[in-house]
Write a structure and sequence with these properties.
- The chain is mostly helical and about 150 residues long.
- Among the domains are: about 45-100, no CATH class; about 100-145, no CATH class.
- It has helices spanning about 15-30, 45-55, 60-65, 75-100, and strands at about 100, 105.
- The longest helix is centred in the middle third of the chain and has 25 residues, at about 75-100.
- The protein is flat, with a radius of gyration of 30 Å.
Length: about 150
């Protein structure tokens, strides 16, 4: 039997009012601020080549072609590395959450010759008993055994 999460109705209106007030203040600040006109990069700026040069510690002039100019890219490189670390952490976390365990041991999927009693079906159900249809015959020729399920 599972317990479903319930909505907490014991009101804490102070926290809700504080959140709404913070939203209003931040909205007023963002609406009232004036940003300078975007400058962009000059004609012929080679942003990708500049990032590659900064990442591999190469002088940008070595990579630039005719009419291309280097862009100071250390700021881009820091942002790129931060995004890289966050994505790797998300990938590792998703693998850890997807892994199945029973009693502290990792459970296999029953693929290959190492299938044993610790394997589970990939759909999360129980292992098949080899039945085909409802004729009572197993696919290997034996008699089907009733398991006492709900679909009787």
């Amino acid at each position: 039997m599972t317990n479903r999460p319930e909505l907490n109705t014991e009101g804490n209106f102070v926290a809700g009012l504080a959140a709404v007030a913070l939203f209003v203040v931040l909205g007023a600040v963002f609406i009232g601020v004036s940003f300078p006109a975007p400058a962009g990069f000059g004609e012929g700026a080679a942003i990708t080549k500049s990032l590659g040069a900064a990442m591999f510690d190469i002088a940008p002039g070595v990579l630039m072609g005719e009419g291309e100019s280097a862009v100071p890219s250390e700021g881009f490189l820091i942002a790129f590395e931060i995004i890289d670390v966050v994505l790797v952490a998300a990938l590792v976390g998703s693998v850890m959450l997807a892994r199945r365990e029973e009693a502290g041991a990792i459970v296999g999927l029953g693929v290959g010759s190492e299938a044993d009693e610790t394997t589970v079906a990939t759909d999360g159900g129980e292992q098949s008993d080899g039945l085909r249809g409802t004729s009572g015959q197993r696919s290997d020729g034996g008699e089907a055994v009733e398991t006492g399920g709900d679909d009787a």
